[in-house]
# Entry
Amino acid sequence: MAWTSERPTGFRAFFSSPAVFFGLLILAGLLVTSATRIILRERALRAEERALGEERRAVEAEVARLRASIEAGTSPDAVERLAKERLNMKNPGEEVVVVSPSGEISPSPAPARSRWSLGAMFGFSGWLGELVSFLVR
# Structure
């Protein structure tokens, strides 16, 4: 029997070529790599979406709390209470009594000053603002 080497022709010859085989193998590897990157990016985006959803809920709760605080703080009684507590202000004719624990004597608080002094209105601060306010009295 004689050995004849029959070479494939046409379509079979194209795909049996080693160069085409390695080219297709590289292409398949690139497709797998690309698909893997897409899947990993999707997972990262979903995790970011969950984190942003939680942050959004927290911010919405903070907004609701602040709105309730604003609504509660706009009444005249609340404004007066906050002025007395935070700014050490008093109504005309009221006396301020400070009770300190264990008999300690603390200096009396400085009288409340107005934020609307003339020096502050013209942009002077510190001793220069005080001087301008004093001079225009």
Q: What stands out?
A: The radius of gyration is 40 Å. The helical segments are 11-15, 18-73, 76-87, 118-121, 126-135. The chain is about 65% helix and 0% strand.
